[in-house]
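Morning F.,

Quick status update on the modeling queue. The single chain you submitted on Monday has been processed. Sequence for confirmation:
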Amino acid sequence: MKEISKLLSYRPDIKVVDATLRDGGLVNDFYFSDEFVKALYNANLRSGVDYMEFGYKADREMFDEDKFGKCKFCDDDYIRSIVGENNTDLKIAVMADVGRCDYKNDIHDRSESPIDLIRVATYLHTIPRAVDMIEDAKKKGYEVSCNIMAISNAQEGDVRAALDILGQSPVDVFYIVDSFGSLYPEQIQRIVSVFDEFASKYGKKIGIHAHNNQQLAFANTIEAVGDGVDWLDATYSSMGRGAGNCAMELLLSFLKNPKYNVFPVIKFIEKYMLPLREQGIVWGYDLQYMMTGVLNRHPRSAIAFTKEKRSDYTEFYKEIIALD
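Structure tokens below.
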């Protein structure tokens, strides 16, 4: 049984990471106005959020700058135009995706950058490349996390081998990523126990990034908190790829640390998130995402279904089960 003290009290080690610009950017190709980004930065400051993820450090050789907004590339100068010198307690993060980031050239020394945390995203089969990115970022002076994606498709033996390799690297945080939104709280508990074995052995922290395909992103995040996970990802109004993520407004309302204040989040959602929906930007739970989540599938087919404005859910279900 979960220790009630882990849910009714607060742990000062908990860190809340706002991933709205990064995961939400996958919905609108990262086209956020400077006004939106500055307002989000100020909302995070007032709400007590610990880290704000600005987006990706994407490789310009692979991605056309004309087809994406600024948060796809997260130039240092762009981030400074929003946060200045950022003499605050809010730290700045970016994601470096294995195989999609020219990290040797595009991630500069920490002393020259407004960024505090590099979040390396990897699959199990690219762990060696992830370790090289982690070592590079650490040498440059950054905090570093490693997000292990598609964990629901992984064999436990492979996860253990990966965590043992990562544990010997200078990474600070191991991240559980429910990429397909397919996991249930009971599974989260078991996965956390495996991660904790290696986090304890190597002196690392554990984080969680949940997707909402089965409307369990918040429930799975709460489960992780009760199991001792300290780093928690969330997005405003649950904005994120496909079904979205754990909602920031729910998470801050749940956490007991008095440093967190949900009112600035609610205010930002009213002024800035609702207009995004009114503009026709679509994200959040729907039947097509539920189906891919239940089947433990990547949501790309559900995303295509949504973009095509289809509503023939039964036909879609027949299409995706035929792939088995």
